[in-house]
Amino acid sequence: MSFSFKILLPQINDSKLYLAVFSAILGNFNFGYSLVYPSPVLPQLQGPDVDPRLRMGKEQAAWFGSIYTLGAAAGGLGAMLLNDLIGRKLSIMTSAVYISEISHKRVRGAMGSCPQITAVTGALALYALGLVLRWRWLAVVGGVPALLMVVLLVFMPSSPRRLIKLGREQQAEKALRWLRGEHYDTQLATPMYYRPILISVGMRFLQQMTGITPILVYMEPIFAKSKVSLPARFDAAIVGAFRLFAVAVAASLMDRAGRKALLYTSSLLMFLSSLTLTIISHTTPCPPGPTPVNLTTSLDYISHDAIGSALDASQQTSAGIIPLISTMVFILGYALGWGPITWLLMSEVLPLVTRGVASGLCVAVSWLTAFALTQAFVHLVEDHSLFVPYLCFTVVCVFCLLFTAVCVPETRGRSLEEIENYFRTGRTFTITRSPSTEQT
Fold first, then answer.
1. Long-range contacts, stretch 44-50, CB < 8 angstroms, 24+ apart
2. What is the C-alpha separation between 400 and 272, in angstroms, rounded?
3. What residue stretches are annotated with the Major facilitator superfamily (MFS) profile domain (predicted)?
């Protein structure tokens, strides 16, 4: 008997699904909050009034800015084992997989964007609180969403698809009834494919190579002493708010415009903004003097104080606004596509039988790349100003565009089973229910 989601989806009650998604993405809020923690804290720990025992030099600042990404990579490696060993809910390090597997295809695009939206919200909260709180209290506040997540997840169901994979059909049925009401689908396919794994790993690698992590981590030092109308910490908060707006726009377009259209737009916007920043950093003269000794002063090397000797006050203001606007365009481009869609596509295209291990591999590759890039960023700025890293980011954006055109499939409107079938046969298929399934 043919079975169509189109008949059942309008009758599905999504309220409990939203609660389960909210419980899962609290960890993403904490992730985004912690990732950009160095941005307002580094200036505090490198300032003249800091306790000498806490003052950071260049090497310490580089480790402080990048060590979190190393921990995220270790979490990804752990998720490779834990996703299948203890389940998606308990190993919530890869929340995108859990969310994808509990969501139906009508809302999966929007729900799949929630981890990125929440991570951006966490980063914005950190930027905003950094305006009024010292670094110790910023650390305390970061523990609140993690505690709330632990409490809520106790009451959430496990992934129905994983339960089906383990042969626990009654538990899967119970979980689906909790999530969707009386209507559920348990007809799942579990072949292994190398192409979706390579696509997912490639996207996560390119996502980090665009330079998004070092830009977010060192945003306030990058803006420090720039000739703009607001202090650097306010510039970072403005960009954080704009990033949240852009991710919200992407979520609303995810199931309308399609994944590939947003990835094309994202790549183009990031390319244009990175190219602009490359040109600006190349044409900005280097100030004379000895080599800077720490991160903040090393970024002064490319600050717009250097333009002051050649431009009048109005020209300095104009030159200072261009990097801010270019950074906002870069954030807009990233948030429209390569930010949320890499997470969403990873959870969509990976075959069920390898989803736990492969998603952990993707996370590990992503954050090992982020760690290496965040570490190298400080030294590249020290030796070559921002010109070299921005030039590299510009080239990567071209590869993002080509990768989207050649490798990435369009998954909008397809169920996870249809996507698996696409990689197996190259065509979609109609989901059918077995008689035993219909009787349950």
1. 44/134, 44/135, 45/135, 46/294, 46/295, 46/296
2. 13
3. 1-412
Q: What is the DSSP string of 45-101?
A: HTSTTS-TTT---HHHHHHHHHHHHHHHHHHHHHHHHHHHHT-TTTTGGGHHHHHHH
- Report pLDDT for 394: 94
Residue 432 belongs to domain with CATH number = 1.20.1250.20
* Tokens, residue 380: 């590249």
- Nearest to 198, CA basis, from 414, 412, 354: 354
Domain, as residue range, for 205: 5-439
What CA–CA distance (Å, rounded) separates 204 from 139? 28
Look up residue 223 and give its two tokens.
Answer: 């803006």
Which residues, 6+ apart, have CB-to-CB distance to 205 below 8 Å?
Answer: 365, 366, 369
Which residues have CB under 8 Å from 436's CB, separation 6+? none
Least confident of 152-161, 325-334, 358-367, 379-388: 152-161
Q: In total, how many domains does the chain have?
A: 1
Partners of 2 in the beta sheet? 432
Query: How far is 325 from 318, CA to CA, in rounded Å?
Result: 11
Lowest mean pLDDT among 206-210, 413-417, 422-426: 422-426
Question: What does the pLDDT look like over 48-100, one tens digit per residue?
Answer: 777 778 777 777 878 888 777 777 777 666 666 555 555 554 445 456 667 77
Q: For residue 269, is pLDDT > 90?
A: yes
Amino acid occupying residue 229: S
Supply the mean pLDDT for the chain: 73
